[in-house]
Amino acid sequence: MALEMTQRQGIVVWLYSLRQVKQLRRYGLVYYTSKRMKYVYLYVDADQAPAVIERLKKLHYVKRVTRSQRPMLDMEFGALAELANQETATKAALKE
Q1: pLDDT tens digits along 48-68
Q2: Cα separation of 93 and 64, whole Å?
Q3: Alpha-carbon torsion 27, 38, 73, 57, what sign?
Q4: Which keywords accompany this UniProt record?
Q5: In what order do the strands lie in the sheet with 62-67?
Q6: Which residues contact 34 (CB under 8 A, 6 or more apart)?
Q7: Which of 16, 67, 94, 96 has the lowest tally of Cβ within 10 angstroms?
């Protein structure tokens, strides 16, 4: 029996009040709650994300719902580190 990884999607739910945070648990895993900015970060299955977003938008205590952009970002930073090292080397050479 092999354990399969399910794809997850992060959803940011902006609220009018934080009283309903417990109610959001039925839609997904509440990962983080910001009391100051009044938002909740949820994780849901990627295949269920569009349906969950539509259900969340219909709730009266939800201000807005946005998807996390992290899956769309390129997480390879090796080339950027090399570029930064080259820039610092050229700046050091110019100072001398």
Answers
A1: 999 999 999 999 999 999 998
A2: 50
A3: positive
A4: Cytoplasm
A5: 29-34, 39-45, 8-15, 62-67
A6: 40
A7: 96
